[in-house]
From TrEMBL:
Record domain PHD finger protein MALE STERILITY 1-like ubiquitin-like: where: 356-453
Short name of one Pfam family: Ubiquitin_At1g33420
Descriptive protein name: PHD finger protein MALE STERILITY 1-like ubiquitin-like domain-containing protein
Keywords (A to Z) from UniProt: Metal-binding, Zinc, Zinc-finger
Top-level lineage group: Eukaryota
MF term (GO), any: zinc ion binding
Length: 512
């Protein structure tokens, strides 16, 4: 079923915003994402018609160099969702986040689809050509799923970094708390080496580092230390050594690699010693050829020579893919491929304290979960607190009673299982009457632990990920790799990490 997108008002009445400066609503005070996204929809977007239950769609019209670009905001109610849980939250290590009531998608379709209807929500995830596709849960945690169709060059109307800049401005202005992005592979044929890693090897940091995204977690318990070590190892590979090794192998692939290395060495006026040098140069060629704003004079090679050699973007891309595929295959052991392809980068936004205008508190909660059953199995290892907290914003003259009501409303509006949640106390302030002013006892910007009533402990819609992971490799959360449950301790482990001792039983190495 295709969605019927029809602007309620005539398209002529649609307000148009400048793409390069657009950052959503201008707030006198910033609240939490949950509240800010509503202001954004009210102030900057126009509702579209849809007949899907639990789905609302708005459109914002942005203009760049005379071209009109649609930005869609889609609100999905989790209660009606075909996919209430978020796998990417689990992969990012956020599986113990409670399921949020709503999630918002921000989408700019590829330019060839600007005049067409958006597909139904069920089909939104099947398209990987979006110029922008981000999803943010109403608790302010979200994921950047696709940027520029995962193409570095973007589209003919927008550069990749222009879209990324827009996304970053929107996230900041909407009070987003954390966004994760998978180190996305976009080079056809470069199956063993993602673009993210390629950037890591070439520049010592991720493609998203410019926007302050930092390595967060990888598959098989990969941590920052091991990630950086792998990047260093690959980057430091000596090109002369590669050439020698390939000459010894002397097959069609190795001969091709040596021709390729020779070709780029000839083009670059600077002597290249390591794989990092070579990849850096190749990326600079790619960038110069695709980036309209590149300052060609500043680079240290001659574009004329490149053009006369009829080199184009695609052949550089192809060369990078080919080189990465074969060099990393020769220099990394197989498991390293898997590890290096599944990394998540995360950007966190800190609360902006506006203590002269409002009081802001981060309020985590001690949960009271009664024993929960999953099928016929007792789940006893669920966390007993919501350390994540929620941002509660209060007027300067708010009382402790006001704080409790505001925190209650905040949790009720955010999480599915907390619809009837009640705050029974505030740790450290419990000796005070409800009528006492909060600011006399607590400075704005601080943290206040709440105590509350038992939450609706249904398994349905409780946590984003339900599998509790404790694998021998160090993984403490799902990471997109195949997993199975240990029959003894009931923790989940990677299939690859299970004990070999009992081939036909599912038993982890800790229990074996
Ligand atoms: Zn998620
Ligand atoms: Zn494992
Ligand atoms: Zn076990």
């Amino acid at each position: 079923m295709a969605l019927k997108i029809q602007e309620k008002n005539n398209k002529q009445n649609l307000k148009i915003y400048d793409f390069k400066n657009f950052s959503g609503p201008s707030f006198p005070i910033t609240y939490s994402f949950r509240q800010n996204i509503r202001s954004f929809i009210q102030e900057n977007a126009q509702e579209c018609c849809t007949d899907e239950e639990g789905v609302k769609i708005w459109i914002t019209c942005l203009e760049n160099n005379g071209v009109k670009i649609p930005l869609y905001t889609i609100e999905e109610s989790i209660q009606h969702s075909y996919k209430p849980y978020c796998r990417i939250c689990s992969y990012t290590g956020w599986s113990v986040h409670l399921v949020s009531k709503r999630r918002y998608r921000l989408i700019i379709p590829n330019s060839d689809k600007w005049d067409k209807q958006l597909p139904s929500v069920v089909d939104l995830d099947n398209d990987s050509t979006y110029l922008l596709h981000g999803v943010i849960h109403c608790n302010g945690f979200g994921h950047l799923l696709c940027i520029s169709g995962n193409q570095e060059k973007g589209s003919k109307h927008l550069c990749g970094y222009e879209v990324m800049d827009l996304w970053d401005r929107l996230c900041t202005n909407l009070g987003t708390r954390s966004i994760s992005v998978k180190d996305m592979s976009n080079i056809k044929g470069a199956g063993t080496m993602s673009l993210g890693l390629l950037y890591g090897v070439a520049n010592g940091q991720s493609r998203f580092a410019k926007w302050n995204y930092r390595f967060h977690n990888g598959a098989y318990g990969l941590d920052l230390k091991r990630f950086e070590a792998a990047i260093r190892t690959l980057g430091a590979i000596n090109l002369n050594e590669v050439v020698e090794n390939m000459a010894i192998k002397d097959n069609s692939d190795s001969r091709k690699i040596n021709v390729l290395i020779g070709k780029y060495r000839l083009w670059n006026r600077v002597n290249m010693i390591t794989l990092r040098d070579l990849l850096k140069f190749m990326i600079s060629l790619l960038k110069a050829a695709t980036d309209r704003h590149a300052n060609l004079e500043a680079s240290n090679y001659s574009l004329d020579r490149l053009l006369s050699a009829s080199e184009d973007v695609n052949s550089v891309r192809h060369d990078i893919a080919y080189l990465c595929e074969h060099v990393s295959r020769s220099y990394l052991k197989k498991p390293a491929f898997v590890i290096l392809r599944n990394n998540y980068f995360v950007k966190e936004w800190k609360i902006k304290d506006e203590g002269d205008k409002v009081l802001k508190f981060m309020c985590p909660v001690r949960l009271f979960l009664s024993p929960t059953y999953y099928g016929d199995r007792l789940i006893s290892k669920l966390p007993q607190s919501l350390e994540l907290g929620e941002l509660v914003v209060l007027p300067l003259n708010a009382t402790i009673g006001d704080l409790k009501v505001a925190a209650e409303n905040c949790y009720r509006d955010t999480y599915f299982v907390m619809g009837t949640f009640q705050v029974t106390g505030v740790e450290g302030l419990n000796h005070l009457e409800d009528g006492v002013l909060v600011r006399e006892h607590m400075k704005s910007g601080g943290q206040l632990w709440l105590q509350g009533t038992e939450i609706q402990h249904t398994v349905r819609f409780l946590y984003q990920g339900f599998q509790l992971v404790n694998c021998i490799c160090g993984a403490k959360a799902q990471d997109g790799q195949k997993m199975q449950e240990c029959d003894i301790c009931h923790y989940w482990m990677h299939r690859r990490c299970k004990s070999e001792k009992y081939r036909y039983l599912s038993i982890c190495k800790n229990c074996a």
